[in-house]
Design goal:
The protein has 11 helices and 16 strands. With 362 residues, the protein is α/β, with parallel strands linked by helices. It folds into 2 domains: 135 residues, 3-Layer(aba) Sandwich (Rossmann fold); 199 residues, Dihydrodipicolinate Reductase, domain 2 (2-Layer Sandwich).
Amino acid sequence: MLGAGTIATSPGGFLPGMTKFPDLVTVQAIADPVFERAQAVGAQFGIPEAYPSLETMLDGSDIDLVLNITPIPFHAGTSRTILEAGKHLVIEKPLATTLEEADELIALAKAKGLTYVVAPPNQILQNRTQARELVKEGAIGQIAFARVRSSHGGPAAGAWPLDPTWFYQKGSGPLLDMGVYGIHDITGILGPARRVVAFSGITEPVRTVRKGPFAGKEIEVTEDDNTLLMLDFGDSCFAVVDGTYNVNAARGPMIEIFGRQGTINLGNAYHDDPATPSLEIFRFDAVPGVDGWITPNRSGGPLWNDWVAYQRAVIVKHAAECVRDGVHPILSAEHARHALEIMVKAIESARTGRAIELTTTF
């Protein structure tokens, strides 16, 4: 494990979940530039080895796979080092910040025969799988458009336990941090997009941390904190996706897909909340002679249960199973590259005022 911060150790983080499938994965080593933190986390979770850097861990430990949970600007460089060392890789989103980096990393993994898994886990969640199947089956007819909400209020709006400054700096921002979820969601369900057009900007040049240990700290915002984009899937099928730190509260479905014969709603991806169906569908013929909403009998299932049980660690489980079984990941680097192209070209679109063609697929 590279990184010993909040998403490594929090109750819904990687390490608590990874303790639940010990027959599949053993955490042998952890590295963090704050060596004392790596040592403390190692002691807390019974990890035998702690290191002050990625390089010393790769040199000193007999490991098969590295979980890379460094901050966004470091993803490409650290992932390159991991792959060059011949280790399978699980990386937090996004896989890189430029398409050139993404292409290089994918080619490197392929050349070395390595499994390369990229967050987010959305496409192995049961309601996403169901939605993809329903669309493919034509359950709601020809798709016209979709609305996708993937954002929150940003780390400065909540009680983030560490200094949240870097989230608001060049090379990070809510599009790469949060918009990536919605982009993965809708492209995973509808398939690769063909064009993107976007608006983007900074809503407040200075953000003040509202809660937590850094409450009151003022952060200069140098990366756009408010991006709205539209994707063109061809055949007059469109989707609107947000990537912003301005959703302080919201109700209703996270994803709405509107077809000529009905609608699919998807609830919160990350909480099994019985008050909000994980998936519901409206069809004109839902019940003979009656129009209305239904919850398909296919809801639930092992993939959804995996998320409830393992939280973030579900992507490590997915990677380990792919290595064991010799199969290509559903959470593939190719899909992540397509999502990255959308984000990069959304910013280009916002700056130029043009719709931008997309070239990648998955």
